[in-house]
Structure formats: C-alpha cells, structure tokens
Amino acid sequence: MKKILFVLPFVLFGLSPVFVQAQVSSGSVGIGLQVGDPSGLTLKFYNGRKASVDILAAWDLNDYLFVNVHALYHKPVGGSGNVNFFYGPGAFISFYERGRYEDYIGAGISGNFGLNVFFDRFELFGQITPRLQVLEYTDGDLGGGVGLRFYF
C-alpha cells in the first residue's frame, strides 16, 4: 500500500501535461494524507500565499494519539510559483496507552522543512520534522514523510 501511495503522485504528474497555476490563496483549506513517521491525516490552512498552518494527526485506536502543529513560511523555487521550499516552528503532543502502568503524555517543540509542488487543486509534499520532546522525558527524534492534499 505504501508503494502505491508513493507512486500515485508521480502518475498524476505524468497525466498532467503542464502544471496549472496553484489555486491556493488566503483562506484555502487542504486535506490529505501523509505517509511516513508518523502516517496520518493532514490539514493545511493558508493565511496568505506565503504563510500557512499545518496540522498532522496520527493515531492507533488502541495505543496512541499524536498531533503536530506548525506555522509554515513558503519561499518559491524557480519562476513558476508552483514549487516551494517551506519551513517553520511547531509543537507536538502525544498520548500513549500501553498497559495499566505505562501510560504517559509526551510533548515538545519541532521544526518542519520541506518542498511542495502544486498542480490544480492538489499539493504534493515531502518534509522532514526534527522533534525535541521535553515533557515526561527529554528525547530527540526525526520524523517526516510524503503526502498529497486536496484544496477546497
């Protein structure tokens, strides 16, 4: 399944002869999926063409819930306006339930760095998310993934 989700965006690129100017503006909302660490549902809210808020939620109904929120800034790459480098600060919280005495909450700060490509009402993205957990215990981690969003 992960291979299909990874290949699907490239197939879509092959079917589209020309990238269409992105129809993302202030107030646009995107919803999609990210495959990676963690894999989950992603929402993105644009505050303007160069700023957005990105939310990622991942869960396993029996073991954990993870929510990551970032304020992102976008810098165009090249002249088309469809390809962007993005970066920004964020925070995360995770709830783990692994038995009667092993429950805990983890929280910390994170950053997000990546590239996105817009075509019509879709966004293909890849990102790296370094995290520093400071609640419950101190630990560093590197997450990220690839994903696809549809904009309303």
Q: Which tags fit this structure?
A:
mainly beta, eight-stranded antiparallel beta barrel, about 150 residues, about 10% helix
> How big a fraction of the residues is strand?
over 45%
The class by helix and strand makeup works out as: mainly beta
Overall pLDDT, averaged?
84
Strand tally is 8
Low-confidence stretches: 1-21
Quick one: biggest sheet?
A: 8 strands, antiparallel, barrel
Order of helices and strands: HEEEEEEEE
Strand order, largest beta sheet = 1-2-3-4-5-6-7-8
Based on Cα principal axes, name the global outline.
elongated
Radius of gyration: 16 Å
Terminal CA distance reads 26 Å
Count of runs of 4 or more consecutive helical residues: 1
Residues in helix, %: under 10%
Description:
Helices cover 9% and strands 64% of the residues. It has one helix and eight strands, in the order αββββββββ. It has an eight-stranded antiparallel beta barrel.
Quick recap:
This protein is mainly beta and 152 residues long. Helix content is 9%, strand content 64%.
Topology of this protein?
Blueprint: H1 2-15, E1 29-37, E2 40-48, E3 51-60, E4 64-76, E5 83-96, E6 104-119, E7 122-135, E8 139-151
Antiparallel strand pairs: 1-2, 1-8, 2-3, 3-4, 4-5, 5-6, 6-7, 7-8
